[in-house]
Amino acid sequence: MSRKGTRVSGKGFPETTEMDRAVEGRLARLRSKLAEKRLDVVLVTNMDNVRYLTGFTGSTATAIVSKSDAVLLVDSRYTLQASEQCRRFQVREYKDSVLPAAACVVKEMKTRRLAFEADHMSYADHRKLRTLLSVRYYGALRFVDDLRLVKDSQEVAAIRQAVAISDKCFEDVIGRIKPGMSERELAIDMDFCMRRHGADKPAFDTIVAAGPHAAFPHAQPSDRILEAGQLVKMDFGAEYGQYPSDLTRTVCLGKADAKQREVYNTVLQAQLKAIDVVRPGAAGKDVDAVARDHIAAAGYGEYFGHGLGHSLGRGVHDGPGFSRTSTIILEPGMVMTVEPGIYIPDWGGVRIEDDVLVTESGCEILTGATKELLEL
Length: 376
Ligand code: GLY
Ligand code: MN
Prior knowledge:
The protein has 376 residues and is α+β, with helices and mostly antiparallel strands. 33% of the residues lie in helices and 19% in strands. It starts with 17 loop residues before the first helix and ends in an 11-residue tail after the last strand.
């Protein structure tokens, strides 16, 4: 195992890209973890983790990393692409089935203790691997995922861009939301708008829910028609460079009544208070409690069931977040959502969601869309 896959430019200088440097940093952190756990090799099958470690953007690949080698196994659809994108990996093409190829690489690496992603590899694949490879297996949980909680500068830049796109989308569509359109029409408009502003795609299925339908926290846009006097909840995000944004805003079609205003302000104050305590060292469950206690004190405790937020990364829900049982302790570089809500059956609901970056001294709110109650 010797070829490192580093390409040399025409002028004889290695052309190191920002992605190459990011990958070097990620590999170094992974290798420290291997050493710490006295493991020889890790077999990475979760595609979010494969993409993170390698820079690959295709749909299918397997990464195998030891303290001195890094191999990426792809099928023929991706050989050329992976060779261009993953220059810190030796790219190898497999035919038909990846597990025998992976077993071969692991053997070449003279592995005694092999970590595999026990929270991802199927039971069937694991059984098959055992028939191909006689090593000591270590069923790792969140082995790479936890490295991803603290973002590097390349990741933060992508998230900032994704957030800028969803902010622009919100700014655009508030000029177009009108009674008489359906939830589905508005959702399609938002998806198209994000693409027009540069999104690779929507980061998840856009939620638009109006009136009583907004009481469903994760409503699917329907043919329901938006009516004057209704609250409209929109939860949407852009994916840019493999990273998402996640933004929720709730607006009122026309003048808000007293209850709509009270619920909205309760959610907003809960969110502002929670954001205020987001800083390095803060415990996820304490941040959750700040918002939850505020909502409970206002008399709406039974209407806020979900966690306050989640880690945002390659996946939209990318790991532990803010909840009653969270064990996460915040560190600089983590990106989290803060999204309290109140959902009242047969009445409707309000959620307000921002994405925040934990900094050395507190947090930066990345999302810029206004949180004033808009009466459109
Ligand atoms: N934006 C979808 C969610 O956070 O669940
Ligand atoms: Mn969210």
